[in-house]
Amino acid sequence: MNHYPAVVLPLISEGEALGALIVIQGKKRLTGHMIAHLQSMADTAAVSLRRASLLEEVRQLLHNREEMLRVLAHDLRNPVNTIALATATLRSSTGLGQAQETVIEMIERSAGRMNRLIQDLIDNALIEHSGKLPMNAKEELADHLAEEVCELTRIQAKAKAVHVRCQIEGQAIVIVDRDRLLQVLTNLIDNAIKFTPEGGTVTVKSEVHQNQVRFSVSDTGPGIPKADHDRIFRPFWQAPATAHLGAGLGLAIAKQIVEQHSGRIWVESEEGRGSTFVFTIPASSSSN
Description:
Elements: E1 6-13, E2 16-24, H1 32-91, H2 98-130, E3 138-141, H3 142-158, E4 163-169, E5 173-176, H4 178-195, E6 201-209, E7 212-219, H5 250-260, E8 264-269, E9 275-282
Parallel strand pairs: 4-6
Antiparallel strand pairs: 1-2, 3-5, 6-7, 7-9, 8-9
């Protein structure tokens, strides 16, 4: 029976043994230089194996999370839709007093917030998975979109005793996904109403500037520190003082939607002087 020199080098990464590199040289003896070279190869192989293992774990975690979000969204949406249908039925009833109307409005607002949170979770999962959201862009009149969202704003603001001002200037055609654009405006308005104290004012503007339409939502709330102006558009980021007021996804999704429309979004704000969120969308050449 022939015996040949061999070297066994453990594959170790971060203190964990992943395997071994076994090299049989034949009749030629292994020199110190050759063993050092093989050790280097073993170290590289160990790092590669470790990375491959971690990558597989991450993939599995992402798959599990996406599946959880899918199930969660489905299981949550069914009861929320049932609540919405029930409140619509109650509202159509006759003989309701002011107290009952107020309770129904509270239920409707809570169900609406829950639906938006569910949609934000789904949208964020889509963005992380494919880097974009599905869009169905069509020609829309920018001033009509602004008018529609202004009506919704007045209804929402009424419940909190917040004043609403709408300023719609100019007309232009924009090529947008109508529902997605309204999602951006609704998110900005929800935030404005949320942070505006009773008796304060929310201003919604739509202006046409040359080849673009500029939408803005202003409030008379506490304002945002300059250091946080970029952070607020990151997924799940929230200022410590307002961390309990949402999931921290709305502005990140709004930014994604605006950028997919070849637009830009930013905030203009100082502490103690309110905030103005602005975004632009290119106007169609048909507007000229």
